[in-house]
Write a structure and sequence with these properties.
Shape of chain B: globular
Order of helices and strands of chain A: HHHHHH
Low-confidence stretches of chain A: none
Shape of chain A: globular
Number of domains of chain A: 1
Distance between the termini of chain A: 39 Å
Oligomer: heterodimer
Helix content of chain A: 55-70%
Strand content of chain B: under 5%
Number of helices of chain A: 6
Distance between the termini of chain B: 41 Å
Low-confidence stretches of chain B: none
Radius of gyration of chain A: 18 Å
Mean pLDDT of chain B: 96
Order of helices and strands of chain B: HHHHHHHHHH
Structural class of chain A: mainly alpha
Strand content of chain A: under 5%
Number of strands of chain A: 0
Number of helices of chain B: 10
Structural class of chain B: mainly alpha
Largest sheet of chain B: none
Largest interface: A-B, 115 and 125 residues
Chain lengths: 137, 186
């Protein structure tokens, strides 16, 4: 099955974020109040791992599992979309304590209230799609 | 077993999150969770109303498989990889939360004051979750990514736009946590 490896990656990611407690509203609150190193340690270690890993992939020209060259997509240039969109996401993240990954993961932990956050997030995405061309990017 | 069933250390957790991103890169994909929200809108027929959703969502099936995996991963971790000792907060945080009428974790991942079924049935409780979701959905698509796409993938690839986005995450997060939450939860 072609999708199995992605499904397994998702299971792995879901377990890690739950056990790291990055899905916890409390941990996000604590992070934004600088009252614990936990979340900063997680993001920092993930970054160090990611930077080193991507450098190795680029330097050694490592191929993907199909043997094709790995093309790491560069982000589009811009300022307003990143600062404004980022700030809006930050407001939501600190309010409900979940970013998009944890919204799905929390469904699995049996938190039914998170369905409302998911519906809100889908609506928000839809509204962005409608207003996209009128916003500064 | 304590190491497996208790809270995972930040260094292990961070390393494994970084490896998840590298694994998806090795699979020829890019790591990002919020783009699934766009895919789901597209599947629901939003392409009729905005070109932004005119896409072939079948190309994103791999990412939806990651989402399904995440749900199952959350289930497994919560029910089978836990000894009930969760979220040991800084005591100062617990005391501060008490002044906002937020219950202490005591092994829970989420406060009942925001996520219990009783809270959900109050107009305010429902509105908080819905508005939070709206900001997350709108903000991540406007910024073109969330914590996974910008803070992990983008910064790992030393992308300046991702740094600006992460600065934005913190501007919004700090304003909410320090100024708005106390007013909202009053």
């Amino acid at each position: 099955m072609k999708l199995a490896r992605f499904f397994l990656t998702g299971i792995f990611f879901g377990i890690v974020l739950t056990k790291a407690e990055a899905v916890s509203w409390y941990r996000i609150y604590e992070m934004f109040h600088f009252q614990s190193f936990h979340m900063f340690g997680i993001i920092g270690t993930a970054l160090v791992t990611g930077v080193i890993g991507l450098q190795i992939i680029k330097k050694k020209k490592i191929k993907d599992f199909k043997g094709l060259p790995i093309n790491i997509i560069e982000k589009e240039k811009g300022f307003w979309r990143y600062i404004l969109g980022g700030s809006m996401f930050g407001l939501g993240w600190a309010l409900v304590g979940a970013c998009p990954g944890p919204i799905f993961i929390l469904l699995g932990t049996g938190t039914y209230a998170i369905v409302v956050v998911l519906i809100g997030a889908l609506l928000g995405t839809y509204i962005y799609g409608l207003l996209k061309d009128r916003l500064p990017h | 077993m304590e190491y497996l069933l208790g809270t995972w250390h930040w260094s292990i957790s961070g390393f494994l999150i970084g490896m998840t991103m590298l694994l998806l890169t090795y699979f020829g994909k890019s790591f990002g969770m919020s783009s699934n929200l766009r895919t789901m809108c597209s599947m629901a027929g939003a392409g009729k109303f905005s070109d932004f959703f005119k896409m072939d969502w079948r190309e994103q099936k791999w990412s939806l498989a990651v989402v399904l995996g995440c749900i199952l991963g959350g289930f497994i971790a919560y029910h089978f990889l836990s000894n009930g000792t969760r979220v040991n907060l800084n005591p100062d945080t617990v005391a501060q939360l008490q002044t906002l009428s937020i219950d202490a974790p005591n092994g829970k991942l989420l406060p009942d004051a925001l996520f219990s079924m009783e809270t959900l049935q109050t107009p305010k409780g429902f509105a908080i979750l819905l508005v939070g979701g709206l900001l997350i959905g709108f903000g991540t698509r406007y910024a073109g990514g969330c914590t996974s796409g910008h803070a992990i993938s983008g910064l790992s690839n030393l992308q300046l736009p991702s740094l600006v986005a992460v600065i934005g995450f913190f501007i919004g997060g700090l304003v909410m946590a320090h100024f708005l939450l106390p007013i909202i939860l009053k």
